[in-house]
Amino acid sequence: MSILVTGGAGYIGSHTCVKLLETGYDIVVVDNLSNSNIKAIDRIKQLTGKDFPFYKYELCDEAQTEKIFKENDINCVIHFAGLKAVGESVEKPLEYYDNNIVSTLTLCKLMKKYDVKQIIFSSSATVYKPGSPMPVSETAELACTNPYGWTKYMIERILTDIAFAEKQWSVVLLRYFNPIGAHESGLIGEDPTGIPNNLVPYITQTALGRLEKLSVFGNDYDTHDGTGVRDYIHVQDLARGHVDAVRYAESNTGTTAINLGTGQGYSVLDIVNAFEKVNGVKVPYVIAPRRAGDVATVYANPTKAKEVLGWEAEKTLEDMCRDSWRWQKQNPKGYGTEE
Ligand code: NAD
Ligand code: UFG
Asked: Please, what's the b/e burial string for 160-198 (b: 16 or more CB within 10 A of its CB; e: otherwise)?
């Protein structure tokens, strides 16, 4: 019996693959490598000393994807695969709806056909209606502001409806807050293509000198220092949350949505200051105008994760800053380093 990990060559997927293998699960990985590198797969194998089938397939292609179900005894799916850049989704909505929704529908049709009834889905805090009271709980109102977010919202709906109709299905919707950090080895980490959109990859590339300076998007928010506050969570804690979700899905049916966050908010300047202090490096920055679509503060109420999964975040902000920097220093060009 194996867990099918879609998008397993990506940032969160690769860390989760390592944790699953270390826990003793067998895995099968599918990724079209549209936003990742085959070296991540090699590094997962190197870190764990374990081998597993890897398919460089397009999930939206039903015939290709069916081969995976035919050739392996899958009993659970962790569905990371998807396009994830908020700004790009506004420019290319059709591409986002097509890729994220069609891949999920294809996967679900095949799960039904091959009698696979457990799925863990990568959702996001972005499904919560902007302006929701913080810390935000799973029962808060849902509404999105961009096509990327709506794909998460729609997939949550699709999976919930399937689990309602198919009473033996188990659907766990994991709503991640802001994943940062990397594996302690520095062998796997986040490797964005082009200029990073997200804060921490921008900081690490600035500290390295690849980028000149960080633009802090707004210092006039209603927060302790005026800069935006988010709930940053170490990718290793997040990966562990998926192992707990798999265990939960093994013995429960129905749908449950669970926040994976720390419950602690840090501002942009908190992150910059912690990063500089922990790593002894400088991160030059300027204050820039607010970024369209950003809100002042987002952080999780993580109590349901503790109650339902027995999971809580363990890593500190210092761990996150140290591990992000180790990965970036050891891999100045990401997985492209050795090319
Ligand atoms: P990532 O881009 O590193 O990983 C996603 C992987 O999916 C990539 O390797 C990509 O090549 C693959 N992929 C995309 N479309 C595919 C398709 N049609 N067929 C096969 N493979 C495909 O992203 P990540 O940061 O690891 O995020 C994983 C998941 O978590 C995504 O669904 C993302 O939306 C969600 N998420 C991420 C964050 C974040 O800040 N990183 C926050 C909330 C939710
Ligand atoms: N920020 C900067 N400068 C930058 C980049 C970011 O000041 O160059 C600030 C943002 O304004 C925000 C904070 O850093 O206050 C975090 O921004 P990120 O882009 O790293 O993360 P977001 O919270 O905007 O978005 C993340 C994921 C999305 C997801 C969302 C859900 O990237 O995919 O969380 O809450 F939808």
From this structure: bebbeeeeebbbbbbbbbbbbbbbeebbbbbbeeeebee
Residue nearest to atom 43 of ligand 1 (CA): 124
pLDDT value of position 331: 96
Mean pLDDT computed over every residue of the chain: 97
**Upstream peptide bond of 135 is cis (omega within 30 degrees of 0):** yes
By most ligand atoms within 8 Å of CB, the mutation choice from 6, 14, 16, 35 for ligand 1 is 35
Kind plus residue range of the DSSP H or E element containing 119: strand 118-124
d(CA 335, CA 191): 7
Q: Is the pLDDT of residue 338 over 70?
A: no
Q: 150 CA distance to ligand 1 centroid (A)?
A: 15
User: Which of 6, 11, 55, 103 to mutate for ligand 1's pocket (most ligand atoms within 8 Å of CB)?
Assistant: 11
At 225 the pLDDT is 98
Evaluate: CB of 36 within 6 angstroms of ligand 1.
yes
Instruction: Render pLDDT for 174-220 as a digit per residue (tens, 0 to 9).
Output: 999 999 999 999 999 999 999 999 999 999 999 999 999 999 999 99
Return the active site residues: 148
CA separation for the pair 2, 23 (Å, rounded):
13
Q: Which atom of ligand 1 is nearest to the CA of 40?
A: 9
pTM over 0.90: yes
| pLDDT > 70? residue 260 | yes
Token pair listed for 250: 């093994």
- Count of positions (residues) in the chain: 339
